[in-house]
Amino acid sequence: MGYFGCTIGIVGNHDDFGPDLSRVQSLDRAHFLTQGTATTHGLRVAGQSGIIGRTDKNFRLTEDAYLKGVASLLRQAPHVLLTHLSPRINAEGLQGEAQLTAVLAKGPRTLVLCGHSHWPTVEPQVLANGTQVLNADGKVFILTRA
């Protein structure tokens, strides 16, 4: 028995499992989300893998497909949303995708864990709808129950 009851993750554009992708997807107590949800201990986690880009490259989707995927996940009211891409936070000068920011701001309030673009802060960024965004690029966050 491991230390953790469950692992839920997504992949980015530089991840490559080659022929072992099906082995990753079939791991016990692990959920590999390309675009989907997993629930553990009453916590509903949604995940959108990849980035916006050329679809002939690894884990990339068209802008429309990526954003529609995120919007669809948000309609399921997850407690946590995992995205490889970061939203752009103009007021703080934090890099990311402005289109993703717009989609997140229209959805229900949630906690977003993202990456891809490095943000020099560990502080949550709060969108107008109350969504909190934590950029995990080069960082580790440990979340516990209050």
Automatic annotation (TrEMBL):
InterPro entries: Metallo-depent_PP-like. SUPFAM superfamilies: Metallo-dependent phosphatases. This is Calcineurin-like phosphoesterase domain-containing protein. The lineage of its organism: Bacteria, Pseudomonadati, Bacteroidota, Cytophagia, Cytophagales.
